Input
Amino acid sequence: MPLFHCNFFAHTLGMPTNVTVFIPAVKPEPDMSFCDIYPKNKKYRTLYLLHGMNGDETTWLRKTNIERYAQEHDIAFVMPSVHNSFYTDTKVGLAFFTYLTKELPAMLAMNFPLSDCREDTYIAGLSMGGYGAAKAALTYPELYSAFGSFSGALDIETVGKMASDTGSLSLFQSVFGDPKNISGSSADLFSLSENLIKSDKKIPRAYLACGTLDALCYDMNIRFKNHLDKISFNYDYFEEEFAHEWDFWDKQIKLFLDWL
Output
C-alpha cells in the first residue's frame, strides 16, 4: 500500500513538521485497468493514530503490523508527530491541539483522498496518544465518530502528581500549567465527557483498553471508566494481563479496527 512520509510547514506551529500517511491499495487482478487499480474518486475512511511519550510519526509503523491491518480494513492511517506535548496547546510552547484538530485535517484534505464525513473519521492512540485521542473526540465530537484509547493517560491530575514525584514537573507545567488548575479545565477528560453528555451534540463511540499489569495507567483507566458509568456515557472496555507494552498495543489496534 502507498506510504507517504510528509514534511510541510505548519502555520499553527510556526515550523515544519512531519506526518506519515497510509492509503490502502487495490489488489490488482489480471484483467484490471490502471483506472481500476488507481480509482480517482474514492474517498477513504481515516484513522488518526497517535503516538505516546517520546514517540513520533514513525513509532506505530516500526513497532506494530498496522500497515497490514490498514490494508485488510481498507482504511487510511494518519500518524502525526507532536513531540511530548500531550496533543495540547501548551502553556509554554506550541499549539499542538489546534494543529491536530484543525490545520492537519485541512492539509490532508487538500492532498489525499480522505473522506471528510464524520462517520468515516476516527482517532486513537496509546498512552499520551490515548489521552490526545479522547480529548480531541470529546472536544470536537462533530469531527470524529469514534475514538480509541490504549493504556491511555486519561487522568491528567494524576499525571501531574506522577510528574511531581518523578522530577519532571517542569515538563508538565510547560504543557498544562499548574496541576491545581486541571480540574474542570479543557484538559480534564472527566469534565469534557460530562459536559458532552449534558449537551445536544452527537456522542462518539468510545473504546478503552488497558493492561491489568500497567503500573502507569491501569488505575487511572479504571477511574475514568467508573466516571463514564456514573454519567451514562456508552463505551466498550477491554483489559488483559499486559503491562505498558507494545505486545498489548499491537493486539489492541487490530481489535479496535475490528470493533470499528
